[in-house]
């Protein structure tokens, strides 16, 4: 069983509600939109991600024989729902912001229009996919902004929340500007560049640290990156210097050394000096170990001679904001706009479009959220991507989405490009939309 | 492609190191242990979980044709490694603490003994599985401790980090004492009781809230739990009271109402009064909406008339501690104990056993970590579970593991059963183990 593709990876109430909708003949078109209610602490913007996986999920939506049998045997559902699920396919329309688009609270990044039971049934997984990758891409982008162009590598798989989280965190961070990942499967699945060095266990398995370096170099002559903090970092750097001439004679360059503990800036300076004095000025220094965007910024500002960074757990788990306050809400049913008014959770009704306005330097100035048939001078951000259950275009290459994200990050206003919380970017709710909300409220 | 079962869901360096080990003929038995270095903030203990998934992973370990072809075409690996991977199977031994066991820092909860390249290759996924479920079970147990016996339901799938995280969070929280989950697939895969109510969209899809309640009740007569906060909570409660007699006449009881926003304690009191005065004293109140163990404790202490709680995002993401400072470290190779001495990351060498000592009330008093061949009066916590790649026993039923966790929680010292950080539980490192560490240090 592959949880990533099972239609039963959903909340029970989606099935229960579908049964009730079918019983009442409520199969008119429903419009659901996915949006974020408010930014997490420490975030000034979000980067949309996860759309490809949503479209895959929708394209492949069906129940297996085993799943149908299990549902039937559970005794919870009536024959009408079971018959409906037997031939379940996604037949709806989807509009969305392309992955890599920067967005802000109250801006829908995805709209699904489908018969009510169908649009309802896909809720849980659509949220699960968009919440995760958007959160990771948004976190990763912060590291990209402060790394000063130095390559960043995702090292987070071991502490990612399960298999799919590890794989998709590699994707989302690459989309946001990381140079690659250590996760091999992300290379195979998404064509993301993969990187790797060696572990402490490799050194420990040898009785002699220098011998372990030698063995590693012989096995990977094109990619000799040696981990030098197992016992004594500077002593190990000197061992690398001693070893290098013999390797060089065999045509094996020492590409880099990795620091993984202690005061990274201090070790980097000392190691740089040892390497330089040992004629290894071409050997790079890679730093890892509990890095996040704050440490990256501090290391960057300290001028520490580090050439690239491996970022793990903090990014892969979005440790300081491990979820988004996001929602997938019914905005219209059978042509009637609707909204939720629960305390602190009110939503804007109807089908909406987001328009972005730029200043004279081509930087984002403000956005307008309005009804879909309203007019605005700005650039519309939502575009049709699926019609009647069929994708309108093939999946764009991930590199293209990564380029879009880079362009969008370059268009961010200066005041949002910092790690500290900045004054909120302006998102205007149009008077048309406000009027619609009032009309809806009077109607209930 | 199912990321949950792919052998390439691993860090590149595991493959690189395996290639070097093979090249050097380093295929002697290696001993790796998984442990947590220190407790996250806000945790007084951890609950071991994830072993079943690790044993599944090890039992099924192999590379598909597609994976082998991709590795070969990548041009990164030598023929010896590719041949080795072609017939890769797990042939090692595993000892572990049973899932549900409470444990503390520096105590290994799992040991793998296998030829070095093999024991190395499985590192990433073993860590990925144990880190996640242990983290979730440990977080969920805190809610169980403060909920005063009221049922807790996992509602977290939509903001879980991907598919597997949602599925396994349902498992880990049930193991720790939750009553069930909303995740349907967790019912099918693990036999976990599933629960569900209705969403705001169901109410909004109707033009009339009372009609939506009626429709829902007709579709699910055995499980009528109505969400009453879409517009005005108390007004909705009165609608439920008005509707109830007609439903009762049809033999449909209103089993419960759900509150999902606002001041839950205040709404619960008002709604309870409305229900009681409306002859619905049997109708239960279920609360949800950004709950975690702190809010559960506050609601519990306030005496709010809430019968059960749905806990979502905070538990599923372990929001206040979204990772564990865990490690899978080489402790012995070819009969030679070894250890890492990196700053702040030193480990205890050799194969170890953990012994638990109980006081006269059968509560945990202290633990002893010592070498495997040392003697101790306490109860040993690690047991053999796999030998030569074969499980020694069939997978225990999840209910049995859940019972073990409940017993273990009951044995927790009083001072550790609180949400605040308590003085650390005593974990003694035996003099034998300390002597071994000194011997190893002198040897390098």
Q: In angstroms, what separates the terminal alpha carbons of chain A?
A: 45 Å
Arithmetic mean of pLDDT of chain A: 96
Category from helices, strands and their pairing of chain A = alpha/beta
Global geometry of chain A: globular
Count of the domains of chain A: 2
DSSP summary, beta strand count of chain A? 19
Instruction: Quickly count the helices of chain A.
Output: 16
Q: What is the assigned CATH homologous superfamily of the largest domain in chain A?
A: nicotinate phosphoribosyltransferase
Chains forming the largest contact: A-B, 107 and 106 residues
Name the quaternary structure: homodimer
Major sheet of chain A, described briefly? 7 strands, antiparallel
- Stated plainly, the CATH topology of the largest domain in chain A is called nicotinate phosphoribosyltransferase
Lateral arrangement of strands in the main beta sheet of chain A: 13-12-1-5-3-17-18
Extract low-pLDDT stretches of chain A. Answer: none
């Amino acid at each position: 069983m592959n949880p990533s593709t099972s239609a039963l990876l959903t909340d029970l109430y989606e099935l229960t509600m579908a049964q009730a909708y079918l019983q009442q003949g409520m199969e008119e078109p429903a419009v659901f939109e996915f949006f974020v209610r408010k930014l997490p602490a420490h975030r000034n913007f979000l980067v949309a991600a996860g759309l490809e996986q949503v479209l895959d999920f929708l394209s492949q939506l069906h129940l297996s024989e085993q799943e149908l049998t299990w549902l039937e045997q559970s005794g919870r559902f009536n024959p009408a729902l079971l018959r409906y699920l037997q031939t379940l396919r996604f037949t709806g329309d989807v509009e969305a912001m392309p992955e890599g688009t920067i967005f802000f609270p109250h801006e829908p990044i995805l709209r699904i229009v489908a018969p009510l039971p169908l649009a309802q049934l896909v809720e849980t997984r659509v949220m699960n996919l968009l919440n995760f990758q958007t959160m990771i891409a948004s976190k990763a982008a912060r590291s990209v902004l402060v790394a000063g162009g130095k390559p960043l590598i995702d090292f987070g798989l071991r502490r990612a929340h399960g298999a799919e989280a590890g794989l998709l965190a590699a994707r989302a961070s690459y989309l946001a500007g990381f140079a690659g990942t250590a996760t091999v499967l992300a290379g195979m699945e998404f064509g993301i560049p993969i990187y790797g060095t060696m572990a402490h266990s490799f050194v420990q398995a040898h009785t002699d640290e220098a011998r372990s370096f030698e063995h590693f170099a012989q096995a990977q002559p094109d990619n000799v990156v040696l981990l030098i903090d197992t016992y004594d970092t500077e002593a190990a750097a000197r061992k690398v210097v001693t070893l290098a001439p013999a390797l060089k004679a065999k045509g094996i360059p020492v590409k880099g050394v990795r620091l993984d503990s202690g005061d990274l800036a201090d070790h980097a300076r000392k190691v740089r000096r040892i390497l330089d004095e040992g004629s290894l000025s071409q050997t790079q220094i890679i730093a890892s170990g509990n890095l996040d965007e704050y440490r990256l910024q501090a290391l960057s500002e300290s001028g520490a001679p580090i050439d690239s960074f491996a970022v793990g757990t903090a990014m892969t788990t979005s440790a300081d904001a491990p979820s988004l306050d996001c929602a997938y809400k019914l905005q219209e049913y059978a042509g009637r706009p609707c909204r939720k008014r629960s305390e602190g959770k009110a939503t804007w009704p109807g089908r909406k479009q987001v328009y972005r306005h730029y200043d004279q330097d081509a930087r984002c100035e403000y956005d307008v959220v309005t009804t879909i048939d309203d007019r605005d001078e700005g650039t519309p951000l939502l575009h049709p991507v699926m019609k009647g259950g069929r994708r309108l275009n093939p999946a764009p290459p991930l590199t293209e989405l990564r380029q879009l994200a880079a362009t969008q990050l370059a268009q961010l206003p200066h005041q949002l490009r910092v790690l500290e919380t900045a004054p909120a970017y302006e998102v205007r709710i149009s008077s048309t939309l406000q009027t619609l909300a009032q009309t809806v409220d009077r109607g209930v």
